[in-house]
Amino acid sequence: MQNAIKPNHVLWIFALIALVWFGTLEYRKLVRPDEGRYAEIPREMLATGNWVTPRLDGIKYFEKPALQYWMTAAAYKFFGEHQWTARLWSGLTGFLGLLLVYYTGRRIYDERTGLYSALVLAGSLLYSVIGHLNTLDMGVTFFMCLSLCGLLIAQDDRTDEKGRRFWMHVAWAAMGFSILSKGLIGVVLPGTVFFLYSLLQRDLAIWKKMHFFTGTLLMLAVSVPWFVLVCRENPEFFHFFFIHEHFERFLTKEHGRYHPWSYFIPILLAGMLPWTITLFGALARSWKNEGKNFRSSLFLLVWCAFIYFFFSISDSKLPSYILPIFPALALLIGKWLTGNRPISWHLLPTLLMGAAGIFLAPQVVRFSDPIVPRELYEHFIPWLEGAAILALTGSVLAIFLDRKGLRTAAVFSISFSMLLSGQCIMLGHDSLAPANSAYDIAKKIRPYLKDDIPFYSVEMYEQTLPFYIKRTVTLVDYQDELAFGISMEPRKWIPNLEGFEKVWKENKEALAIMNPDTYENLKKIIPMLVIAEDTRRIVVKKP
């Protein structure tokens, strides 16, 4: 018989997690490309005062909706433009996801399941890493989790009609915010999961409990106004966002993110560490009939299976796409952990990984190249060794505690140590920042920056540079993801090197950033003086 979990213990656990979770957001440079992109767009929103049309480097950028841009711009407004405020929305929604999973586990299962589920999620490698990167994935994961949890609580047998109405409206509103976070997947995925569950259970009566009319109105009230405004201001938005960025991204290889259907298997197995083995038992147990009209565990299984399948058959894949299944997996694993089965052998992969990592960490220098030289990786090694030691120590302690019958202490030990281990890797990765971020080169060129001096980005676009220098640059002979925006506003770029040579010679003062190969070609025909350089970039000024 396990002892009851004291409320003050729960508070201390979440306080410790919060300290680690939020305490590391500032201590890494923003890295290319995503962190720079999603830090710069809100900066430009705040600078221009236009919160309707997203712009990147002053060019229309319609690939994603605006919610995270707004939240980050608001953070800049109140707290300043820093690395931690750029990452705050990801960090905040990631931590709120832990609290939400805890609360939902308590409501649909019991107190212990709620706590274990939150700890599982906090310690899972992929979730904790994405929660500290400035990307859009954690925001949409939180709102999809909120729609999932709202639905689970609403449909639970113990929820009365008033509670059902409230939580279903929470779920509908969350779908609206999911749409504003990353598009139509915010309603398509939860809606399809509910449909599949009702078919599997042959339970059509459940549709009467969905509050469709008022729920749909609420979802539309949340999501539609911005789309109306942005389409009114930019008629080209509708086709690009809804057709190109949804259907063409899913059905074609145009975005260059094609991977085989098996792509997510290693990502799921590694991303779920240290609970990878436990995952299989939890999934198998979810088939068991819970003796309730609404089978929460089965619904969670359908949620995980369909979303995993959906992204596996897509022609566009990135590791973070399956993040929305992690809260559901955490709830299933948390429920499994409340049983009496020993978990010691489940932690062996993490133990072995930690032991091996101590000896293999120095081998990271094998990844060095002219862009990321050996000396940068050498600074990374102690951090990797520290992360391995934390994983090893947490595993050993958790195994010892579990064998003593202290399941809660064991779950906390391994989850918290893995959270620390993941943060150790993230902080250590900052050793590579001179190659992956424009932070250092921005410091070097700051004395040369003036508002009236043009700054050109030649045959490249360094995503993190505009955020650090607090201004946009003029693209030269480079489009990439900005191609659509450039086609709408062609005056905002220089299409070839001949045009660049002309404006360079016309200006009394000018700055430009380019890669070393471009510099070697241009220095023969254009007068330039190098003012800063690293392995990836060279910044020049007009002599």
* Largest sheet: spatial strand order: 5-4-3-6-8-7
Q: What is the gyration radius calculated from CA atoms?
A: 25 Å
Number of strand segments: 8
Net shape: globular
Strand content: under 5%
Return the average pLDDT rounded to an integer: 93
Q: What is the number of independent domains?
A: 3
Total helical segments: 24
Helical residues, percent: 55-70%
Structural class: mainly alpha
Report the span from N to C terminus.
79 Å
**Major sheet details:** 6 strands, mixed
Name the poorly predicted regions.
none
Description:
There is one protein chain. It contains 24 helices and eight strands. It is mainly α. It has three domains: 89-255 and 262-281 and 293-335, no CATH class; 340-435; 438-541. A six-stranded mixed β-sheet has the order 5-4-3-6-8-7. A two-stranded antiparallel sheet has the order 1-2. Strand 1 and strand 2 form a beta hairpin.
Supply the key terms.
single chain; 543 residues; mainly alpha; 6-stranded mixed sheet; two-stranded antiparallel ribbon; 24 helices; 8 strands; 62% helix
SSE layout:
Blueprint lengths: L6 H17 L10 H15 L6 E2 L2 E2 L6 H13 L3 H26 L2 H13 L1 H6 L6 H19 L5 H22 L2 H17 L10 H22 L3 H15 L12 H8 L4 H10 L10 H18 L12 H12 L10 H13 L13 H30 L3 H23 L3 H4 L2 H7 L9 E4 L6 H5 L4 E3 L6 H6 L4 E2 L2 H10 L4 E4 L1 H7 L6 E5 L4 E4 L2
Parallel strand pairs: 3-4, 3-6, 4-5
Antiparallel strand pairs: 1-2, 6-8, 7-8
